[in-house]
Amino acid sequence: MAKLRRDRTERVDEPARIGVLNGPNLNLLGSREPHHYGTRTLAEIESLLRERAGADGVTLTFFQSNDEGEIVDWVQANTGAVDGWLVNAAALTHTSVALRDALDGSGRPFVEVHLSNVFAREPFRHTSLLSDLAIGVIAGFRASSYLFGLEALIRHLRGSAGAGAE
Ligand code: CA2
User: Fold this and answer.
1) pLDDT at residue 139 in the model
2) What is the CATH number of domain 17-157?
3) pTM
């Protein structure tokens, strides 16, 4: 029997649908700060993710905004159309109760990713308002953080991950 998609703990038997959320300033990737964020543009990261997802029959919906309200609106509008989220909330990671509430309210599992190793940077980046809700957090592997996060989320949704799958 097909399983419900609504509960954070439910597994998805059908092809998974994942929303990829990118927060403020990530549209500038590839142009500056390569020591933190690598050299790939967001479009290149999207391409890498689509290639990986397509190989596994997973559909991606990709979104970036510099506006907190738009991001919350996008989560609300897409909750019914996704099974889970891959989230790089950028600076909103450290500040946004609104995004935390939106992701929590969606009832969908999510993986938090960061290009840089936030724990090796300024203390204000060590705090995330999302991590305790996430099924896991990946940071520091530049564009590969997204790929590792996608892999982990797909495994979780298919019920074959490690700790995240129980
Ligand atoms: O490491 C990450 O992925 C971050 O989420 C990136 C955020 C930062 O606020 C988080 O602490 C960690 C910043 C994204 C800004 O991206 C830029 C890219 C190029 C040029 C300037 C900013």
Assistant:
1) 98
2) 3.40.50.9100
3) 0.91
